[in-house]
Fold this sequence. Notes:
Structural class: alpha/beta
Shape: globular
Radius of gyration: 22 Å
Amino acid sequence: MKICVPKEIHPGETRVSLIPDHVARLVKRGARVEVESGLGTGCGYADSAYAAAGAVVNGDRRALLAGADMVVRLRKPPVNEISLLKRGCIHVSYLDPFNEAELVRKLAGQGVSAISLEMIPRITRAQKMDVLSSQANLAGYVAVILAASHCSKVFPMMMTAGGTIMPAKVFVIGAGVAGLQAIATARRLGAKVSAFDTRPVVEEQVKSLGASFVKIDLGETGQTKDGYAKPLTDEQLAKQRAALKKVCAESDVVITAAQVFGRRAPVVVTSEMLGAMRPGSVVVDCAVESGGNVEGVPFDKIEVRNGVTIIGIANLAGRVPVHASQVLSTNLTALIEEFWNKENSAFELKFDDDIIKGCLITHQGEVWHPDIKSRLAKG
Length: 379
């Protein structure tokens, strides 16, 4: 089987889906790996490193895609490249299938077996393949570093000749993987940290990292079977925003990481809440790529509004591309190895396997995933 890795062409993307070390592992298993020339430039991997690992380096992108039995990449494929893929090709990448109806239909129409990385189920056996968690973990770290570099205060308590400097107050909204890493990083920098999440079950995790948990009685909330927060009603959102306004006003840094799987991110910090914050404060929106948690957040930009710095930088994990690529490549290699048939040296789609059931979106000319098929049928 020929596994092909095209260069990421999304503006500003520096991560790679397979690093040379993992290419070498796949080659030892009998895979033929072909990478596009310049694949690893953004994070320091030269073409020669891929060649030394056993890959063929190809400068012709169209030929690379057309000859692939399996395509492994990070970002969604450009719609105009789908026609280059041969029927029966297995395509692995982020797809955002709930919101990319045209893309899904094109993949199905081309006869491509498309695996969506974000749909890999959160079960014990699939933890090593969880790209969402590995990338969100780094995004939470980067969010704090950005906040610290733009905040008008230092994070830790300091005893100086001029007196005692009190620690900065950091408030994290959303205690998923990104939020928990933001809490841990802010604590390591010496900040006083508090956090809020609609899922009461995460309170213990927040406290275990040395932060305080902000409790707001919203009635029935909770999480899905995969651990994602359930969407709130309009009434619950209004009650939440009213309670969060006071905490935001007292904070030096607010980091938002509240997302609902397959949906637009909820607005949890309104313009009114921003207006209550002190000049010199910082807000970092980790959910900007799915619509943003901050009202009017500038996409992939930093702006100052009434003295408050609002950071809407996209692709936070991509700002540390070496380690982001390392863990991403580990996740993808784990997925490939899990379903690698040693006898014929090929990736095998096991349709009765829970992992494949969860992440295979299209197959043999049809939309295969029942939830996505149902969503497309409703328009």
